Request: fold
Amino acid sequence: MASVVIVGAQWGDEGKGKVVDLYTEFADIVVRYSGGSNAGHTLVVDGQKLVTHLVPSGVVRAGKKCVLGDGMVIEPEVLLKEIRELKGKGLLQSDADLLVSARAHVILPYHKEIDALREEGKGALGTTKRGIGPAYEAKAGRRGIRAGDLLREGRLRELLTRNLEELNPYVERLGGTAFALEPLLAEALAAGAELKRYLADTSRYLYRAHKSGRDILFEGAQGTLLDVDHGTYPYVTSASTVAAGACSGSGLGPTTIDAVIGICKAYTTRVGGGPFPTELKGAMDARLRRTGEEFGATTGRPRRTGWLDVAALRYAVRVNGLSGLAMTKLDVLRGVSPIKVCVGYRVGGKPQDEIPLDPEDIVQAEPIYEDLEGFAEEIQSKREFDDLPAGARRFVRRVEALAETPIYLISVGPSRSETIVLRNPFRG
Ligand code: GDP
Ligand code: IMO
Ligand code: MG
Reply:
C-alpha cells in the first residue's frame, strides 16, 4: 500500500497529466487537491488525446476512483461539462467513481468577471481568467460559497446576497456590469442539483480508504514556482500547489504520504507574466516552442521557453521534500547542442545555489550555465535507459547529480507508452 504525490517542479505544464495517467495503474484512487480549471492536464493513450481540467487524469482507467478534494475551487458549469464530455467518450461509466468534496469552494460568474476585468488593468498577472484568484480570496475572507452550499437554498441566497453587496460596486468600478441575484441563484441551485450525486465528505472517504489499504495518487496542479507561499510571488496562482498542499487540500494527514515525485521538463516553460531567469529569446525559443508544441492546454497561449533551471529544481526538491524526479520531453532536446543547464545564480556578484525568489533579486540574478553535449539520434522509440544515446544519458545523470535527487522516470514522447521507467514510487 502506498500514497504518492505528484507535483509540478517548475511553473506548471511539466507533463503531470501524462505521469499521473501512467501511475494510475498502481493506484485505486486519484485525488486533485488544489486549483481548479486553470489546470490543463494532457494525456495521450493509443493515439487518443485527452485534456482534463478538473477531473483527475486517472479517469481514463476504468474503475479508478477520482476525487476532487477540499482545497479545490470548482466552477460547477465547467465540471458538469467535463463530466458530460468524459461520458461521451465512454469514460467515467459509473457516477460512483467520482467524488467531489462538499467543502470545495465554487467559482461563480462574478469571480471570473473580476479576474478578467483585473487582467485588463495595470496589475495584470497573465492569469487564466478562470476566476481562481477571486474564489480563493472569498475563501480566505470567510465569505466563500462551498459546493455543499449549492444544495441549501436559504443559505445560498444569504451568501450570494452578501457577496454581491460587497462585490457589485467593485465590479462596476472595474468597468463591468453588476450581477443580479436571482439568475445567479437559480443557476447555482440547478448546478447543485446536478452535482449532488457526486458530493461527499472526501476527507473521511480518503481516510477510510487509506486505512483499508488502498493506494492513493495525488495529482498536483500548477507547479512549485506558482505556489502562493513558495512561488515567484506575486506572479503565482492563489493556491498551495506544493506537496504539503496534498494534505491540506485533501484532509489526509502528512504521515500517510510515502513518496513525492516532482515532474520537470528537460527544459523550462512558463505561461503568463513574471520573472523567468533562464528564458530564451529568438531562434532557440521558437524551436523549443515548435518542437515541444508549447501552447497552453487551457488557454492556448504560447508558452515562454527557457533552459532547464537546476537551481530551481533544487528549490523544488527542498520545499516539496521530493523523493524523486520524473523528467519529461527529453525528446524535444534532440539536435540541440550544447544543452545549457542553469546550475546556480549570481546575485549582486554573490553566487547562490538556488533560484532567488525575492522580486528584486530574481530580476537581476545572473544564471550560471553549464554546457552539456547534446544528442542527434531520435529517442522517442527508446524504452530502456541503456538504449539512449550517450549524450542523453549524460544529460539525465548530470541533472540527477546536480539536483541530488534520483530520476524515477524519463518521458520521451507524449504517449503513455513513450516512457522509460527507472523506479516505481508505488513499489518503494
Ligand atoms: P501538465 O499541465 O503538467 O499536465 O502538462 P500539459 O498537459 O499542460 O503540458 C504538457 C504537454 O507536453 C502536453 O501536450 C503533453 O502531451 C506533452 N508531453 C508530455 N510528455 C511529453 C514528452 O515526453 N515528450 C513530448 N514531446 N511531449 C510530452
Ligand atoms: P497546470 O496544472 C501553467 C499560471 C497562469 C498565471 C498564474 C496565475 O496545467 O500545470 P491563475 O489563473 O491560476 O490565477 O493564474 O498561474 N497558471 C498555470 N501555468 N500551468 C498551469 O496549470 C497553470 N495554472 C495557472 O498562467 O501565470
Ligand atoms: Mg497544463
Q: What stands out?
A: The longest strand covers residues 339-347. The pocket of 6-O-phosphoryl inosine monophosphate (ligand 2) is lined by residues 8, 12-13, 38-41, 125-128, 130, 132-133, 221-223, 226, 237-238, 271-272, 297 (CB under 6 Å). The mean pLDDT is 97.
